[in-house]
User: Fold this.
Amino acid sequence: MIIHSTTVLGIIHNGQLCIGADGQATMGTAVAKSNVNKIRKFNDGKIITGFAGSTADAFTLLDRFEEKLGAFNHNLKRSAIELAKEWRTDRYLQKLEAMLLVGSVDELLIISGSGDVIEPEHKIASIGSGSNYALSAALALKKHANSLTAKEIVQEGLTIAADICIYTNHNFVIEVAN
Assistant:
């Protein structure tokens, strides 16, 4: 059975990085688990990651990403590029079905298995089944609600996605970088 799930949303807003995700994992047409933690922190909480796709595959990629962070002195962009290159060329890693959203207070990146490292234009990014809903909501909130914090924008973006996307629930884990 194919496992589907997830909406992960990240934003850099007013000097803060916040990344959050819902907790739903589905198997076929049933919810397999409703409280999966899809967010990880690295470098004493200065770097936050979120993942979408197969959980086992994502954990493998997160381990590799952590190795790259160590090898490149916690340089986020360099680590992401090196992971994407390895992911694209390594026969074992090529089979992994996941995506990563990684960020620090300075940059936010999406990493995919096709070798992409994408830096979003508005410092807002989302991955997973409900990503377009969450991204749309966050873009509108950032544009029209200047008084909101990064965490509030992520919370509301995920809530709107969960209200619309059947693969997204309201059990959120939201982290703000140190």
The chain has one domain: 3-176. The chain has a mean pLDDT of 91.
